[in-house]
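User: Structure please.
Assistant: Input sequence and predicted structure:
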Amino acid sequence: MVLIHAGLAAVRGAEGNRHALGRLLGRVLRIEDREWARFSVAFLYFFMLLGSYFMIRPLRNTVASQFSEQLHWLYTATFVTMLLLVPVFGWLVARFRRRTLVPLIYGVFLCQLLAFALAFRGNAAQAPVEIAFYVWVSVFNLFVVSIFWSFMADIFRPQQAQRLFGSIMAGGSLGAMAGPLLTAALIDELGASGVMTLAAAGLMLATLLAWRLGQKVQSEPDAAQDSVIGGSILAGARTVFQSPYLLLICAMMLAHNMTSTFLYNGLAVLIDERGLDFAQRTTLYSYLDLVVQICAFTLQFLLTSRLLSWLGMSRTALLPPVLLAAGFTLLGSAFGLVLFAAVQVLQRALNYGLLGPVKEMLFTVLDREQKYKSKNFIDTVVYRGSDTAASWLFRGYLGLGLSVQQAVWCYLPVMGLWALAAWRLGRRFQGLASQSGVSEKVG
């Protein structure tokens, strides 16, 4: 009997410790008790989604470095593919409910990834297959992540987004740390095809979690609307060009992508000059991805929501262009592969850790058609269109005889445009959030 009482006391003590830990974690992450169930599934869902993507991202980057002289054509092929897919996506959004749409699209991408795994033999594939893989990964990344955040913007209110989106994005960063680590550890043993197969398993789990989250949301008393959106398949694109708010988001993305594409292309050129083989390049890109995600996770988990509370939306959105302008000034003065890679790490960490959560919050004050159709158009066509233009611009600089170091200075005015768009967006977001009855401070 004494042993039974002692056992029950130990169980009660363990439960008390678990509840205390949960309360402490809730205070740190600013999660309310009623939000834990939805938050937990969303966190795991994004972990598996980005974990899968970041397993195959180093493979795509390796292909890019092998075709560094033709990157502008690869960007163009990706952009054209996006243009062709947007009407298809609009048709699907107009006809399927959210809980069916998200798993359906993920399932299609899953089958395609398995097809690429079969097309590769170890690390070897014919050049057309490698090029198709590069384009496919570039499309896959934007579509699946855009759909994820459309889903999040649909089921969380603006005040919840301010508190939770940074932590949800931290789940993705943990997956993005695990992904490249697995790739670096397994590329020699499994080859590219084996890594793709493992990534497909992760994508399957993400698809199941997306379905589970849809079921959970619909079962809650205050369930978010899940009716068929309907409307024209091109309504999202038309709305973008009619909305000053959405055009400002496009301007901010254009400026960011001009900067990020320059760093991506420049790093591919510098790495190609080193003459590394497929596995060495893949390992290098894997570890760069890992460093980026560690930095991004620190921002997301500990700082992003607090910066939004302390500084407001406008000032927080200003931080990435200001910090990157300082990094480009340093890079233009003291050039080298290590420093160039460090500035790209800074840019990507700020993108995932700060700019990403801020951008996704901007959509929470819009209607459902804008959250899915317009957002997807911006995240795919506008994003890849600006990437393509930036890639051709980079190739143009080199064609004019400028070195990568000299081209650095051309991007400081771009960051000025970025800062202006970010400031105005923050102000407009505050006004829209106030109109929707948000009680918490949002900027």
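The longest helix spans residues 158-219.
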